[in-house]
Each structure stands twice: as C-alpha cells, then as structure tokens.
From TrEMBL:
<dbReference type="Pfam" id="PF00227">
    <property type="entry name" value="Proteasome"/>
</dbReference>
<comment type="function">
    <text>Non-catalytic component of the proteasome, a multicatalytic proteinase complex which is characterized by its ability to cleave peptides with Arg, Phe, Tyr, Leu, and Glu adjacent to the leaving group at neutral or slightly basic pH. The proteasome has an ATP-dependent proteolytic activity.</text>
</comment>
<dbReference type="GO" id="GO:0019774">
    <property type="term" value="C:proteasome core complex, beta-subunit complex"/>
</dbReference>
<protein>
    <recommendedName>
        <fullName>Proteasome subunit beta</fullName>
    </recommendedName>
</protein>
<dbReference type="InterPro" id="IPR033811">
    <property type="entry name" value="Proteasome_beta_3"/>
</dbReference>
<dbReference type="InterPro" id="IPR016050">
    <property type="entry name" value="Proteasome_bsu_CS"/>
</dbReference>
<dbReference type="InterPro" id="IPR023333">
    <property type="entry name" value="Proteasome_suB-type"/>
</dbReference>
<comment type="function">
    <text>Component of the proteasome, a multicatalytic proteinase complex which is characterized by its ability to cleave peptides with Arg, Phe, Tyr, Leu, and Glu adjacent to the leaving group at neutral or slightly basic pH. The proteasome has an ATP-dependent proteolytic activity.</text>
</comment>
<keyword id="KW-0647">Proteasome</keyword>
<dbReference type="InterPro" id="IPR001353">
    <property type="entry name" value="Proteasome_sua/b"/>
</dbReference>
<dbReference type="GO" id="GO:0005634">
    <property type="term" value="C:nucleus"/>
</dbReference>
<dbReference type="GO" id="GO:0005737">
    <property type="term" value="C:cytoplasm"/>
</dbReference>
<dbReference type="GO" id="GO:0043161">
    <property type="term" value="P:proteasome-mediated ubiquitin-dependent protein catabolic process"/>
</dbReference>
<keyword id="KW-0539">Nucleus</keyword>
<keyword id="KW-0963">Cytoplasm</keyword>
<comment type="similarity">
    <text>Belongs to the peptidase T1B family.</text>
</comment>
<comment type="subunit">
    <text>The 26S proteasome consists of a 20S proteasome core and two 19S regulatory subunits. The 20S proteasome core is composed of 28 subunits that are arranged in four stacked rings, resulting in a barrel-shaped structure. The two end rings are each formed by seven alpha subunits, and the two central rings are each formed by seven beta subunits. The catalytic chamber with the active sites is on the inside of the barrel.</text>
</comment>
Amino acid sequence: MSIFEYNGSAVVAMVGKNCFAIASDRRLGVQLQTVATDFQRVFKIHGKLYIGLSGLASDAQTLYQRLVFKHKLYQLREERDMKPETFASLVSSMLYEKRFGPYFCQPIIAGLGQDDEPFICTMDCIGAKELAKDFVVSGTASESLYGACESMYKPNMEPEELFETISQALLSSVDRDCLSGWGGYVLIVTPTEVQERVLKGRMD
C-alpha cells in the first residue's frame, strides 16, 4: 500500500460562474480501519482562498500550519491577502524544497483572483503544478472522481447548480472507493459569501 493511501482521502475543486466549490470526504482511516468520521481536509487561508490536502493526515496538518505561518508573514509585510496564483507558487516551492523527504500530500488550491476570476490548481507531493479551467481532483478516490466530474461538469454554473454537481460527483465517487467516504464537506465560495455544507453519505 502506498503511503498516500494510508489514511484514505477524496478532494475535488470545481469552477463555476465567478465562483468555485471545493469538497472533501470526512473519513480518517488507518488503512481499512475507520478512526474518525469528521476529519477536516479543506482549510481556509483567507476569505477567498482555500486549500484541500489529500494524502497522509499528519503531513497535511503540518503543511497547513506552515502555510498559515507563511501567509501571515506575507500579510504583515505586504498588508494584503495573497492572490491564489501567488499562493500556488508558494506551496509549490515549499513542497519542492522538501523533495528529498517530501510531505506526503497532494494539495488542491482554489481561490478567487482579480475580477473574482476563479483559480484552481493541483500539484504532486514535490510541487509540480497542474492548472485547470474546469475541475481538479486528488486522493485515493481520484480515478472515480475524474469519471464523475467529466460526465457531470459543464461551464458557467451558478453556485446552487455547482453545489449539486460537485456533491453528486463526490458522493458517487467515494462509494466506489473503500478508503474514503463517510459523507462529505462542501464549500461554495462566491465574491460575496461562503457557504459551508455537510453531506450525509453511506456510513459503511
């Protein structure tokens, strides 16, 4: 078993019309044994920028704490929040400098940039970025997430339709992966508000 599959995870981000959604499952496991059913994988950097961390849970929490520290330093020095593109470059360089003993995480970054243009990207554990205009996925359920997102996604969705699409994609995908599941956690971010919703899924 790969170290990335040790805790199980499913994270997905999707772009809508001047908005984005980022969602994750809620299971924390040790291989096939479930430890917790309310585990957080999507973290807030600031009001319009979020990061989802799939992979080894302890590394995800450590990496998030270091990212919060770096972002607070940036806010103090620059007196403004970081743009999503800048933050993606920061995460990428942080991961690459640890390439010989990497954090076992695959981050997904989602944010609203200039003119509230949605930005999403993902990267591997040593920081190789992959930008996308529609959706990005990571985690043990990524194969089934790709299939579900490709069949359900359409451009320029309004927030409510985007929520429905990403929720159905997430729930149908984790049902096909025994290492992730136990419901889901969805964030819909628009220029004016952030909606947090918890999904109930199969509890087996």
